[in-house]
Write the structure tokens for this entry.
Amino acid sequence: MVPLEWYITLSTVIFIIGVIGFLIRRNIIIMLISIELMLNAVNLSLVAFSHYLQDLKGQILVIFVITVAAAEAAIGLAILVSLYRNKAVVHTDKITEMKG
Amino acid sequence: MTMEKYVLIPLLPLIGFCINIWFGRFYQEKAHWISILAVLGSFILSVITFIEVLQGKVINYDLYSWVISGNFKVSIGFLIDQLTAIMLIVVTSVSLLVHIYSVGYMHGDSGYYRFFSYLNLFTFSMLMLVTGNNLMQLYFGWEAVGLCSYFLIGYYFRKQSAADAGKKAFIVNRFGDFGFGIGVFMVFIYLETLHYTDIFANIHTLQGQTINILGFEIGLVTLIALLLFCGAIGKSAQLPLHVWLADAMEGPTPVSALIHAATMVTAGVFLVARFNPLFSMSETAMMVVALTGAITSLFAATIALVQNDIKRIIAYSTVSQLGYMFLACGVGAYGAGIFHLFTHAYFKALLFLGAGSVMHAMAGQLDIQKMGGLRKYMPITFWTFMIASVSIAGIPGLAGFFSKDEILWLAYNAGTVGRIVWVIGTIVAGLTAFYSFRIVFLTFFGKFKGTHEEEHHLHESPSSMTVPLMILAVGAISAGWVGIPPLLGGTNMIGHFLEPVLGHPHVHGTHAEEWMVIAISVVVALGGIFTAAVMYLWAPGIPQLLGRTFRSIYTVLWNKYYVDELYDYTIVRPTKWIGSRILVGVTDGKIIEGIVNGVPKLIAEFGERFRKLQTGFLQHYAMGMAFGLFVILSLVLIFVKQ
Amino acid sequence: MLPQIIFGYFAIVTIVLSLVIITRKNPVHSVLWMLVLFFHIAAIYLFLNAEFIAAVQVILYAGAVLVLFLFVIMMLNLKEELSSERFIGEWPIGVALGLSILLFIFFSIAKLAPGPLGKFTIELIQKETHTKAIGKVLYTEYILPFEVASLILLIAIVGAMVLAKKRT
Amino acid sequence: MNIPLPDLTPIIPEIIMSIVTCALLTVEVFVKDKTKDFLGIICIGTALAVMYMIPMSQGVTFGGMFISDGYSSYFKFIFLISLILTILISFKFIQREDAEFGEYYSLLMFATAGMMIMASSADLILLYLGLELMALSTYILAGIKRHDTRSNEAALKYFLLGAFSSAILLFGISLTYGLTTSTNIYQIAEHLKQGETSITLLIAMIMIICAFAFKIASAPFHMWAPDVYQGAPTSVTAFFSVGPKAAGFAVIGRVFFIAFESLQMDWTAILIGLAILTMAVGNILAIVQTNMKRMLAYSSIAHAGYALLGIIAGTTEGLNAVMTYLLIYAFMNMGAFAIVILLEKGENIKDYNGLSKSHPLVAAMMLVFMFSLTGIPPTAGFIGKFNIFMAAINAGYTWVVVVAVCFSAISAYYYMRIVMNMFMKPMEAEAKIYPNPANGAALLISLLMVFIIGIMPSVVIGYTFQMFM
């Protein structure tokens, strides 16, 4: 039997990789993918908890997270598309018009 | 129509203000009608109220309570007792006359309606100040009159000196109000109320309590009294915060008469009188009040001796007379102080309005050395000015005599401090007579010293100006008759009237002594007039001779004891120096702006640095969030580990 | 021992895949590696007796979300992407921040004290089948969040239309 | 299998909001080329009806997942107020801005419905979904001027950082779930009371705090706010500065006061740090701004800092003060934004130079709102601040209040600068205004409420509390 801590550790590592990806990549698409990565990590820990706690709430939340992730991806990409139409950039360092 | 009547007293001018400020531009030239009607209404209601109070009615009720939370309650309420009734009469009557006078004086000014609306606003604020039944309302009125004063001093805002004078008045008053604010706060902290009646009912509980400040044990009562007196010093232009009043003469003359002579500046005296139960509990505080008053009055009177600007002389005279009132309060003669406030309001307003009339004729000329012989051009102005001068000089029979004599006599009776201030007071009486008549002789007698054109222009002022002068002259003669001492066959009506609020000091001197005090003051006053007559009528060479002989004294007095310069070097310049050295940005020459803008500039400098963090770069924001998460995590974990 | 070995394989592969995903220059490659990752994660779900979630993971994530990503990437035509810088200038700071947060969480997970056990034992779920068990909870206890989720999807549609519509 | 239908009474307001919004989306298709004002009018009508219904629909339903009590009702009242005012200031403005899509109103309604769900949810799952409902709508709203690069930029920044923060929130929720086997805040609280606090729980709580701090724009999670406020259409900015912020406070109050009650020591300490930093950042950076919307953004950050004091107090008095504060803030801030919208060019602070000469009435109203934002009596802003500060003092956090008062004094500088610009500076160019009845109504409501609450605080606030609590 694999201990619960292993799953949570794995989930944390993926989550942090997602965070790092979000923090260091210039490309907005990859940043979106990083967010998906973070959400997947959360899902992993939720399913693991759910399994070990013998409770289904965690898995219910996973279903909702997946739903929201899909919605988020759709909106995020739509925003990206509308930005690209106006400015033809997909890099965060090109969208610093407003600052201070 | 019971309580509404009292509410209307301050409310009418407020309504007038609102109407004029919003709609004034549509009927520019007729704006005075609304203002005057409003103040007239207040005056009539004040008289009715006064009569009611005379019959023994005292009103104290809360109109509206602004409960915010817990026991912190701020009310709009009215306390109309004998003291308030007198103040109401003073404020509304002088205000009414000044309003009427302004119709002529301000005629043709571009901001005519604005001027009248400010005057109304001021009247409202002042009435709120005197009618309030709690400290918060007093404080509100206090700040509001200050604000109006600031607006009105800087009324000719295109003139740099006027704008500066307004700022100066505002800033100097900040110092006093800072202390006052702390005083109000302490009253609330220790007594948990701001209502006068509750304060006075519970004030004895503070007796004997002390508070430790920097290792000194200071009596709580003394501290609170002195903090409140701080406010009074600022507002009533006493030493060392007197510097703003002379500069405040940059404002239009009616403003000087109303705000800087008759009403606002006496708010300090009103405050001390209102809090007489508090002040009477602390000998130290009383002594400070008395000595501050006495020294200020001597100090200002000596400055007034040598000045040439007609309004500034009268301004210093006001400072001096206010000192007199504080002197009276300081020796426990609150009634006499208020009596003097009452008479002073009329003769001083008359002096200012007379000066305004002279300026009107002289096309704005202020230097009395350039006037002369105006007697025959403007007889009404001359006679009324003369009456005011006689009154302020303390010649028996006129208003000034009775109130001044009452103060001197009660001071004489009030122990060692009393004797000291009596001596000072008597000297000041002589000086007052001298400088008052110096104006009269230089302005109205002798030959005209101005240019030919100016002489051609001389004329008596219009009736809207002369009628108020005549009415005020009646006041300057007769206002004192309400307080004729028993020794001269009167009953000291005003003293008895105010006794329920202000008490009456115990008098143990004999009739002979009282005669002596009266005689000395009269002789000194006549001496002052005589000296003035000698120096400015019969032997005009003497002043110059004296000026040359006592050059140093003359220069010191001419420069007002260098107080302005002292402040400039000790406060203003160091602030400016620090401002220009420490703050990286450019500080322009304005000292006051240095203080006002310095701190924000420093913060802004800080902000400019911080601002660079907000790069507009998305990842930096995300890193900020991650960093925040990291810091919180590390702090909490370190904390929990222990 | 076998479960540990299998878990070890999946753990290493998912971590390596995650690292690969966030470091690829070409977004298309990232997305394709993501696909592989999603299958692995779905396998872990199976491992945890969550068949329905595994299926949803594959259908929704791999089938829908990633296709959406691919569509957009293709649409945006990112040729110059391949020649430009991958990371922001301050990437070491980002990495350091991420790793330090990771350290804190590691430190705490060692002392993980899970909550009380619920009633859905593995036997119960197996008896009832996973999908049915989940469905029962979802459509009774969690019907309200379910409805809210439908609104969220509606917003996603509306939003995508509002934002990505061409200028009319 | 017979499953009883849950009691729907408590959730009727949310149901009505959602149904009307869906209907609007459908109707909007058929009115393509005509004016879309009537959609907004329907929204206002719905909001008013819902506001009327809220006090009547109290109760707990969906197995304790959804709670409609006084607390949530009051917050819903604030959300609806901000919705109504936003729609009022939007009518002509979105036409001017070329952003008049029928979806605009629907999205505002959806965002409000999301906030209402957040305020009522007693379950972290529902809370998360409500939050996403609100967040997704606001991301779209920020970018609704899709031809404007600034609007795109704002939407993108808001979206990416928002998604980032909600991922962090989810991680926190998942850890909390793992430690308590529960997502219901009451069950979490019950479980936490028994066991001792573990470090993992603290980490979970910190992550949840960070995510909520992002929503209320508290430093250092605030950095999205200025850019998003600046880039989004002004009417949307006005909505952002009130609604989502109030929703954030609603969930903070609910989650921390109930679920993490046993950790109060810890989260109070964290929030004190956040509050002070927030006030510092908001006030100091507001001084150096030249753009009106950015300045108002920093000002709203600073106000979040003040409002946090009420949460820090940790008492019912404190929570009540927060609610009052947010209500007052809604009015005064909406008023200020209504003025910005009223002007043709209101984005730059120097656009306000000499406004009192060309439009004295507008300048006077702006003066009132600036006074209120500064907290000068007798405006409502003073009452709000006063209540918050008193609550914090009564809870024993006097030193925090002293700091807050100092920052509040700094804030006077940048608010008064606007006033100075309007009244003292010479006019540069004749400012053009776009008056219209709806905007006028919004201004009038804000102005009246600022004064009425300022002058009769106990009466008005007492009444609202009586109505909704």
Remarks:
- The mean pLDDT of chain C is 87.
- The domain at 1-78 of chain C is CATH 1.20.120.1200 (Four Helix Bundle (Hemerythrin (Met), subunit A)).
- Chain C has two domains: 1-78, 116-168.
- Chain C touches chain B through eleven residues (CB under 8 Å).
